[in-house]
Hints:
- Chain A contains nine helices and five strands; from the N terminus they run ααααβαβαβαβαβα.
- Chain A is of the alpha/beta class and 227 residues long.
- Chain A has a five-stranded parallel β-sheet, with helices on both faces.
- Chain B is globular.
- In chain B, the strands form seven sheets. Chain B has a five-stranded parallel β-sheet with strand order 9-10-11-14-16. In chain B, strands 8-7-22-21 form a four-stranded mixed β-sheet.
Amino acid sequence: MSKDDLLKKLENAIVMGHLDADDEGFDGTMEGTPGTLELVDKALEEGIEPQKILDIFAKSMEKVGELFESEEYFLPDMLASAECVGEAMDIIEPKLQAGSNSDKGKFIIATVEGDLHDIGKNIVATMIKGAGYQVMDLGIDVPAEEILKAIREFKPDFVGLSALLTTTMIEMEQVVKQIREEGFSDIKVFIGGAPTSKEFAEKIGADHYCRDVMDAMHKLEEVKAAS
Amino acid sequence: MIVSDIQQKKMLSPAEMQLIHEGTCKLLSQVGVKVTHEGIAEMLINRGAQRKGERILIPQNMVENALAETAKTISFDAPNPSYGFTVNAAENQVKFGTGGQALYVVHRTSDGWERRPAETDDLKKILALCDQLKHVDFITRPVECVVPEEQMDVEKAKIFRDYCTKPMNFANLIKRDRLEEMLEIIGSPAYASFIVCLISSPLVMDSSAGDKLISILEKNLPVAISSCTQGGSTAPFSEVGELLQLNAELLFGYVLANVIRPGAQVLYRGIPITSNLYADGSPRWCQPESIRRVALAAQLCRYYNLPCCGTAGVSDEAEPSAQGISEKVLSWTYEAASGAHYINSALGMLEQVMSVSYYQYVIDDIALGIVKEKFKEYPSDEISNIAINAAVEALNYFGVSVDEKVKGELASRIRHIETPLEPYNEGYIDEQLAIIEKAVTRSKSSTVFMTTARKGLREGYLYRGNRIDAPLDLSRVTERLESIGTP
Lengths: 227, 487
């Protein structure tokens, strides 16, 4: 197989959300065939430059985004493709030369203390990672001090906070307050979750309220473009 | 309301339910439940469970002993004794009540509907309203009090004492140390019951909920052990897979409850709904596939001969609408026909569980009355006929002219509720168990459930139909609210 053919196969695997040979892919027929991870390994073995592989990631996700917008793809399809890119990034990153532009920024994401819900957070984390951001997912039920500690160490550009309970919205407010009190005024804070709203985001000093994952992605790209 | 033997809807055969039971036991004994509460883990191990890392494995005999031991009749008394009732697992009596922990109240203005945050005063007014509504048999806390967390239980108890004469379901206990005080305030422990969401899906015990369950059962109070899985995000997208996981989460609750208190008064509250994978993953409470799955859970509960706490009528609509009425009628009808005894969240709820509306309580009281009338009027009729006739009459009552297009949409929804799309066999059950095991052993279980949902999504597991759009004539609802004195 030529290098071009290999990259085309990789693009197709990502668009089809085919993670690895154990995965059934978009239409349930791809199990047993090489998936994204095997194809990335092969591409590196064949000596294809990591930057070229990164370009394929971006091209594939652009196509997936278009398919989602045109309603040919649904949420799981988009998530599967993002997961392919996210996991493949773990293979590519160590191979990149210093100075290569592998990521668009650093993003910390967490569900705040007292709240055990993780669906929305996980979807957003996967999508953001798939879009090329470095993501540190702190998990669920995360105390404010742990989020602050991670901010000091990871130095993110963005922080995403999720809450599904009215009781934990209060905790979200505390986290934002502490982020600002510690002087991290440049960090853009995104919030989301069923009980939250644009008004609530404004009230607690968060920069952006995200209605859903696509809203989060659009707002993140807007902020990135503006900076 | 009594459901006749002929009206009972059995969408699963006994053999299919036995397969689900066997699969559930396999899941509990091989994958188990993550329990980080050391005291509870020890209690379970002392009674025969095994530890595998952080997970507690429950052998089949422990499950079956708990099912045999648990209470089969539960009484719900009320300050007004005439409202009290008993749920008997073997009978087909159905009671309906309110529910939810809604954040918002949807109210009517001259410009239409508006949503505002719920306040303590709303709790008082909703209780006062529902206390007068004919088809509200019990009252589950619809909104929380806006007071500091420490005071929520006590404040809620005072409001129930002052505004509710029906059986009181407080839903979640916030602070264990306020329980005694709550019971003193309401006048008798026999009026009170609770709901505990013991498991965070998939298969992780919530330690705080475990402590609350202990406190509630120490007082020998009735409690609904609840699991609300969302197929495609917190559980398999497959109906079979979701039922397996839901049942395992609930049966774990029965095991624990009967370890805490043998013969515990527990209701089985299974809410296997779906996630909207066409869009943002939000829950679909009242769409045909969810109505079907929740009905299957009720049927499974009755297979075990347990008192069943159903859930029906949680509309996905944001405001009162013809679509919402249709969703609710189908949901009540199939849940009642499938064996639920004590149907929670049945009235007043909108926008999944996010909102309630005074108007919706009255609309639901009227529409539920129509459903009950149809069950009574046609004791030998197919449930699909009862559902469609009730929906048509309810829509007509609110001024909606039901043409062939609307009837066609109702029939299409009913077909989706009644039509199995997946096989119930050992091979398929094993496939689903493998998906659940993969999900619980990974940090992002929702990604596993979503990415394995792609095939089912294209095979039509999520219903895609048309909205039933028509303006409602709510003049009689307004009159009724005014006559009751609710603004």
